[in-house]
Write a structure and sequence with these properties.
The protein is of the alpha/beta class. The protein is built from twelve helices and 21 strands. α2 runs parallel beside α9 and α8 packs parallel to α9. The structure holds pyridoxal-5'-phosphate (PLP) and lysine (LYS). Its EC number is 4.1.1.20.
């Protein structure tokens, strides 16, 4: 029996045995636009944002949406219109923010491998802050900014060596991770930054990982970061803003992360207790703003019973939705429409058409399906379409944004001609 409302996704529910996102019937959208199809709920995104805004009521805070989670222009436009800035990690993401009408002054630039070109583009655009991740990067950024007659605003991203207790691929704040500056090197790095001609120190930053479902790692990282703020300021370098990064998890499969407002009430109480409550704050949430706002719709192509396994072959694959293949991630899979009485159940691996054994969307799922049925893969608003590729020369799916009963295409389905557009056969054929 499928629970109603479905776990994790507040705007998703069955009405007369047909699945709706807000007031839009998903089977209709799948038939109109084809599958695979991503559908996002603007209401769910705004509700998730509102939980953060409640948590920070009365504080000086800039919410910078970590757009790597879902960088559709329409999603960026929605968050920009509700006051968000953006956490970017590439020149491509900067271009998207500008195309979506985002305010460059509210942009922070993270990432361990910013190129000189990207630094120049970001300085030209007038972004709010570079979150610098190494001493070598500091030197290069100073050189680039000075050559433009500018001083780049910088935060140092510190690595607090806190275990976020998440998947190892998405843990970023441990000593063995490539991110940030070891907290023992933080003071020396700030001293170097404040001596460089092309830099202006404005803040401190930390991000310990993603899909974090406990509050302790956030509290530990906060304490460590505040120790560093105290040490850096004692050395005469002012820290104007404190950036706590992102990382709050969502409910994929009965996960119980703290609610954003409850978590922030706790973190802010600690901040107050240590005398930093009136600082300018920044946060960089990604997944918790969009993950449970999206579904990926797919059609069952074939059922393939086997001796050891039954396979349900669908038309979405690891290139469209890579999280299961990459992290063995769980996404619930449910039917879009009423299942006829008497149809048999079986346990299936739900797999895509890509030629890899790792191409699966769900394992050991109890389903009553037939070829031609439509299914929804849930909690796919974050790091799904955004991590998609065209592997096996599969054009990227279309995307739709819904708001109430209004549904609008925000990305056209790519065509095979689109895939061929940037390639050339060499003139000199061997
Ligand atoms: C620097 C930085 N900030 C913010 C985020 C957003 O993380 P999440 O989507 O887990 O909130 C990430 C991704 O983990 C990141 O690398
Ligand atoms: N791509 C990861 C999250 C990465 C976070 C980026 N630092 C996921 O799907 O869970």
């Amino acid at each position: 029996m499928i629970p109603n409302p479905l776990p994790g996704q507040p705007q998703l529910h069955y009405r007369e045995e047909s699945l709706y996102l807000e007031d839009c019937q998903l089977a209709d959208l799948a038939r109109e636009h084809g599958t695979p199809l991503y559908v996002y709920s603007s209401g769910a995104m705004l509700d998730a944002l509102a939980a953060y805004q409640r948590g920070f009521a009365g504080r000086r805070v800039q919410i910078c949406y970590a757009m790597k989670a879902n960088s559709s222009l329409a999603v960026l436009q929605l968050f920009a219109a509700h006051g968000c800035g953006f956490d970017i990690v590439s020149g491509g993401e900067l271009a998207r923010v500008l195309a979506a009408g985002g305010d460059p002054a509210k942009v922070i630039f993270s990432g361990v491998g910013k190129t000189r070109t990207e630094m120049r583009q970001a300085l030209e655009a007038g972004i709010g802050c570079f979150n610098v991740e190494s001493e070598a990067e500091l030197e290069v950024l100073s050189e680039v900014a000075a050559s433009m007659g500018l001083r780049a605003p910088v935060s140092i991203r510190v690595n607090p060596n806190v275990d976020p207790k998440t998947h190892p691929y998405i843990s970023t704040g441990l000593k063995g991770n490539k991110f940030g500056i070891a907290h023992e090197r933080t003071l020396a790095t700030y001293q170097r930054a404040s001596s460089l001609p092309g830099l202006r120190v404005v803040g401190i930053d930390c991000h310990i990982g993603s899909q974090i479902t406990e509050e302790t790692p956030f509290l530990d990282a906060l304490e460590r970061m505040l120790d560093l703020v105290a040490a850096v300021e004692a050395a005469g370098i002012a820290i104007h803003h404190i950036d706590f990064g992102g990382g709050l998890g969502i409910d994929y499969n009965g996960d119980t992360p703290p609610a954003a407002d409850a978590l922030w009430a706790k973190l802010l109480a600690r901040l107050d207790a240590r005398g930093y409550g009136d600082r300018q704050l920044m946060i960089e949430p990604g997944r918790s703003l969009v993950g449970n706002a999206g579904v990926c719709l797919t059609e069952v192509l074939y059922l393939k019973p086997g001796e050891q396994k039954n396979f349900c072959v669908v038309d979405a694959a690891m290139n469209d939705l890579p999280r299961p293949a990459m992290y063995q991630a769980y996404h619930a899979i449910v039917p879009l429409e009423h299942v006829p009485e008497g149809r048999g159940h079986a346990v299936y691996d739900v797999v895509g058409p890509v030629c890899e054994s790792g191409d699966w969307l769900g394992r050991d799922r109890d389903l009553a399906v037939a070829a031609g049925d439509l299914l929804a893969v849930l909690s796919t608003g974050a790091y799904c379409s955004a991590m998609g590729s065209t592997y096996n020369s599969r054009p990227r799916p279309a995307e739709v944004l819904v708001s109430g009963s209004h549904a609008e295409i925000i990305r056209n389905r790519e065509s095979v001609a689109d895939l061929l557009r940037n390639e050339r056969l060499p003139a000199t054929h061997p």
